[in-house]
Amino acid sequence: MKRKNFLKTLGLTAVAGVVGTKVSAQNEDKASSKDEQVGFNHLPNKEEIKMNKIIHRANTRGHANHGWLDTYHTFSFANYRNPERMNFGVLRVLNDDTIGGGRGFGTHPHDNMEIISIPLEGALEHKDSMGNTAVIKAGEVQVMSAGTGVYHSEYNKYGDREGKFLQIWLFPNKRNVDPRYDQISLDNIRKENRFYQILSPYQDDQGVWIHQNAWFHLGEFDAHHKDTYSFKMPQSNGLYIFVLEGEVEVGGETLTKRDGMGVWAVNELEFAFNDQSKVLLMEVPLRM
Does residue 9 surpass a pLDDT of 50? Predict the structure, then answer.
């Protein structure tokens, strides 16, 4: 695919907004009942839905292999267009990317989006129009508030091995803010067999912060451990669970590697880990 066509379909925020608006408009006559579900344009069809949860199995995700980039999309992105899987509330993009040695995303723009990168293996070299040059590696988390507009690039730091990372986009609760960048190491906040916070709306809180009432937690668990997650804002938020490794029992379901599940209308959730597991929790507002 030519570079300009790839960037055109890369899922820039303007496109995401237009698509979301179209889907919402198509369902306007059903809004009174469906708006009580998960956001106004996340209307599942062939996915499992049981009262207050929606399940996205790993093998139902969108997939593209560009040679240098092997990527899986939980929600519609680039050439993967599924109007029934646009987002989970303000969680717009959850991409599971593997980048070839020395390859990466050339300079491209974003605006009015909160962008979180979580390396899983290897390291990425980041450069942006704010003057930041940095390397982020496994065990760190990066955040960028695109705001009024920013250009950046991301490349695999190493030429001799693949790099793997999660690319996550959230719609912000404030538009046209000044662009900003931050990254932290998780070494000092990591806990064994417990969920620990890596992102919140507050500058002085643990982890990075963003312009949204969202909280992210990571957990790395040995087999046969249990833990409970309590919602920060149970009246307005849902929780999207993404299993990075292992097997997890939650909400009456069994989730395995790269399965995702959204849950709402509850105050807390209990997790039981059948195998050594690693899980990312994303609590996000359900409405824009």
Answer: no
Q: Give yes or no for residue 183 having a pLDDT over 80.
A: yes
Residue 170 · residue 87 · CB < 8 Å = no
| Local structure of residue 15 (DSSP, 8 states) | H
pLDDT higher than 80, residue 33: no
Q: Where are the beta strands (DSSP E) in 171-257?
A: 180-185, 196-200, 208-209, 215-221, 226-230, 237-245, 247-250, 253-256
**Rounded Cα–Cα distance for residues 280 and 68 (Å):** 26
Q: Report the half-sphere exposure of 9 (CA within 13 A, side-chain side).
A: 12
Is residue 151 a contact partner of residue 163, using CB atoms and an 8 Å limit? no
* Bridge partners, residue 55, by sequence: 48, 261
Q: Domain-by-domain residue ranges, the chain?
A: 3-285
pLDDT of 34 higher than 60: no
Task: Domain 3-285: give its CATH superfamily.
Answer: Jelly Rolls (2.60.120.10)
Beta strands 140-145 and 180-185 are antiparallel
Give the confidence band of 22 by pLDDT, cuts at 50, 70, 90. Answer: very low
Question: What one-character DSSP code corresponds to residue 25?
Answer: H
